[in-house]
Amino acid sequence: GAGVSQSPSNKVTEKGKDVELRCDPISGHTALYWYRQSLGQGLEFLIYFQGNSAPDKSGLPSDRFSAERTGGSVSTLTIQRTQQEDSAVYLCASSSRQFSTGANVLTFGAGSRLTVL
Amino acid sequence: GEDVEQSLFLSVREGDSSVINCTYTDSSSTYLYWYKQEPGAGLQLLTYIFSNMDMKQDQRLTVLLNKKDKHLSLRIADTQTGDSAIYFCAEKASDSWGKLQFGAGTQVVVTP
């Protein structure tokens, strides 16, 4: 697609429920990233995919968080047994390396705002 | 360790220049980035600079990098109301496969 697409844009859920957040990256981008943005905080790295594998999951806050990517394209971030502290905007980005400069440029989606009541 | 710090808020009059500052700690950073986030939107890349450069200019934007002090700044000339947004500084370390470390963001408010 033309940009990184995320759904849902807004999700309100009750504490204890599971949620799934979806990211559709830019076509051809092999790298995909999930970040979390909490109110007044910077962007917290969660997980990185290269193709379908996740070489870096170091940012996942707990084992309630998991993510997968299929077909080297769409990714799903799953949060099980949601807690109030999970409320945040979850941002997905995909990237391509700029061959002329070597810079890794991340293109972000608009985010999924999660509110846990 | 990796740490990127920015001031949280900047107020500027329309037509004036804005300067947003950022400090980082990872001396191995290869690229440094500025992203802009408007309300309800994702982050939009504004510009980036390679660590062997000390200045980059792109229309109204000027990026200055002091590698010795690990200090990065973004100057916006002739600031407009449309420049009101949150600006994030980010670094990519040389040993990083592509992960960017972001600061907390600077909220810029442009007043008429």
Q: If you compute it from the alpha carbons, what radius of gyration of chain B comes out, rounded to the nearest whole angstrom?
A: 13 Å
Largest sheet of chain A: 7 strands, mixed
Structural class of chain A: mainly beta
- Most extensive interface, residues per chain? A-B, 28 and 24 residues
Let me know the number of strands of chain B. 11
List the secondary-structure elements of chain A in sequence, H or E. EEEEEEEEEEE
Percent of residues in β-strands of chain B: over 45%
Q: How does the major sheet of chain B shape up?
A: 6 strands, mixed
Oligomerization: heterodimer
Structural class given helices, strands, pairing of chain B? Answer: mainly beta
DSSP helix count of chain A?
0
Enumerate the spans of chain B where pLDDT stays under 50 for 5 or more consecutive residues. none
Assign an overall shape of chain A: globular
Round the Cα radius of gyration of chain A to an integer and report it: 14 Å
Portion in beta strands of chain A: over 45%
How helical, in percent, are the residues of chain B? under 10%
| Strand and helix order of chain B | EEEEEEEEEEE
